Automatic annotation (TrEMBL):
Keywords recorded for this protein, A-Z: DNA-binding, Transcription, Transcription regulation
Name of protein: TetR/AcrR family transcriptional regulator
Taxonomy, superkingdom: Bacteria
Binding region for DNA: 51-70
Organism: Streptomyces catenulae
Domain spans labelled HTH tetR-type: 28-88
PANTHER family reported for this sequence: HTH-TYPE TRANSCRIPTIONAL REGULATOR RUTR, MYCOFACTOCIN BIOSYNTHESIS TRANSCRIPTIONAL REGULATOR MFTR-RELATED
Amino acid sequence: MTTPSTSRRGGAVSGTAPAAGSRAARRESTRRKLFEAAVTLIAEQGFSATTVDEIAERAGVAKGTVYYNFTSKNVLFEELLRDGIELLAASLRRAADEVTARGGTHIDAVDAMIRAGLEFIAGAPSLTQLYVAELWRTNRSWRATLRSVRGRAMAVVESVLRDAVDAGELSEEIDVPLTSSALIGMVLVAALDWQSFQPHRTVDDVHASLSRLLQGRIGGTATPPPAATPPAAAPRAPRPARRSRSPRTTGHTASA
């Protein structure tokens, strides 16, 4: 067993490395607390109205700790967005890889990413709310960072869709970038609506609905809807009957 004196002196094996690892773990824990505090406060009252003092108080740390980890509130928020979207991208990639490793189709992998996205958003609704709001703002200092991390999440979906095209599961005519954006947007908006207005629904229920949409519209497996029947065919059928009641008949026949 290591003696107290050896523990204090440190060393290549039993001292320095664990201490460095411990410091890194503590700093990561502190950053997580600050992220959680910031995303909650900013979602509640807006970015401009949220102060560093409030973030520090909510996180249970000193104000100086915020500046030790992030040089400003802007940097904190920028890193918050980067961290959150990268976690989402990693979650999507992991879900797709697990399906394909089991021999599933690439459409199955897309479906798994939808499920992973819903679960991620359910666990981080405030982050999702902020991300969606920031997509519409073009004057923020972190706009370039947001575009970059969005690109990482998009790239994951795009790669799976391209694999599906290569495998013949999807048409070569599909617009991969736009379809990827539509899929991510569908999950974001559906999840926010679910969390805000339909909280009684389960993730299984919401996923099942989006899955049917995916398989029917993108995968091309749905039965053609009844609207495909030409609507003008029905009103034309009675015309012969109207012509049979011609005034050319005799008065005697008409009165009968």
